[in-house]
Amino acid sequence: MKKNLVRRSLLLASSVVLTVGRLEAVDLHVFGTNMPPLDFHGFISQGFLATTKYNYLGSDTKDGSFQFTEAGLNASMNPFPRTRITAQGFLYDMGDAGEYTPFLDFASIEYTFNDYIGLRGGRIRRPQGIYNDIQDVDLARTYVLLPQGVYESRFRDFSTSLDGGEVFGNIPLSRAGALSYEAYAGYISVGSDSGVADDINNSLHGGNVTSFDPMPAAGSQLWWNTPVDGLRFGAAFLYVFNFDYNFTVPTGFPPPYPSSVRLRADGRITSQLYSAEYLWNNWTFQAEYYNDQFSQDTTSPAGTTHSFSYPQAWYGGAAYRFNKWLEVGGYYTEFYEDAPVTAASDASQKDAALSFRFDPKPWWVIKLEGHYIRGTGLLDDNANNPVRSDDGWFMILVKTTVSF
Amino acid sequence: MKLNLKSFWLKIGLLTALLAAGSVRALALDGAVVIVNPSVTADSLSADELKNIYTARTRYWDDGRAIIIVVLPDKTDAALQQASGMDGSQFKTFWQRLAFSGRGSEPEKADDAAALVAFVAATKGAIALVPADAVLTGVKKIEIK
Prior knowledge:
The complex is a heterodimer.
Chain A: H1 2-20, E1 26-29, E2 37-51, E3 68-77, E4 83-94, E5 103-112, E6 118-125, H2 156-159, E7 161-172, E8 178-188, H3 195-201, E9 208-212, E10 215-225, E11 231-249, E12 261-280, E13 283-300, E14 303-309, E15 312-323, E16 326-336, E17 348-361, E18 364-374, E19 393-403
Antiparallel strand pairs in A: 1-2, 2-3, 2-19, 3-4, 4-5, 5-6, 6-7, 7-8, 8-10, 9-11, 10-11, 11-12, 12-13, 13-14, 13-15, 15-16, 16-17, 17-18, 18-19
Chain B: H1 5-21, E1 32-36, E2 44-45, H2 47-54, E3 68-71, H3 77-84, H4 88-100, E4 108-109, H5 113-122, E5 126-131, E6 140-144
Parallel strand pairs in B: 2-6, 3-4, 3-5
Antiparallel strand pairs in B: 1-5, 1-6
């Protein structure tokens, strides 16, 4: 009921924006005309996805699902020379994650000393690869669904924002182009109602995560902007010092406990993401390779057990813009749950996607996308997918976004 | 699938060198000129400096004032591609990514050349590509070296 009300509200807001027509960014002069203008931008996206064989992304997609909503509203201003303040509120719904609950997505202040170096502090969106910091901003890409092995939509709580600071800048390399960098450190905060928690709960057979500790993390994103116009290569690194959480398991959970017990897991994550992107005339070519190493010690009344996993994923894709209202793109991606790579269909997923992006107005985007998928390594949702096979399956997505 | 990173980056470097050998950085803005608000002290910009502005690598003028880019969609796309290395759509997406990740503000948009010139004239720190035949009042034309 609550969801329906929220959805109706979102659709109403969407209609209002559509009715307004061409609505550009709004500049407000606050506190009289002597203050610098406040620049507003926002968007709202509503999607639909349906699958032929499994329930995907936490929703009942075999019946078709509208649980695919995102909305953001941000404001920014330059109150002093070389100083910028910005903040964004966000809400989303993706299966059991998000639930339309508004939250502060980022809020930061930055000072740019010169082109070479600047500082940004507060809640920031974490740079990682081509898409991580805008993975839930539909209007800023060709595809509806990004390659899920690299940009897992349900893990946005963990992957997008961080409370801390970063240093950033651009270093000219003369005839070799330029190097852009961002290096950050801070804490990642994840709730027990997050997509990450859902993923862990999936393996607890009725148990559930009760709390996460704030996760200290540090990382960097480097981009080499080559002397060839539009061609760049990137490398991103992330180290999560403590991925720690408390959880319960039900009676009989292996090793068989006589009753429900509280356990604790202490983990560490190291991840790398290598990127290549080439914008050439109306073409956009992209390829990325991702891997992480997840090491975890689980403490229980029976003692401490150690586990380790090494997921990998990659994709390659291309998009061509025919004119200002039509772009067509596609990608192929593979995900492997653990190394050494195995071909087991429940531990891997291969996905070929074809996407059509229509821009009927500068403020309105409509996308239609089809996927052919083999493997179920990213389904996770065991309860809603009790039977799996090696056969391929299809997914279709439709999404529309209005923005200003 | 074991990736040999050393070999991978070596091949990438060689490929880029080959591509770069065929590219000469010379800037000719098709049918457009660069204008700024008179508060901007610079009288000229190099092609690289202009590209740095349009790709968000340079975001402040020397006096610390924020650079405000103003665009005229569909009217100066060829010049925009020459200045930024991106077509109109790619340029728009590039700045949307910055805006919605907290790393920049989207360029302002104007409906026609007269409105663009008026906006640049009234906005300190503003810069724009404008059709070469536009009437320039209250703005400063910038030479691109």
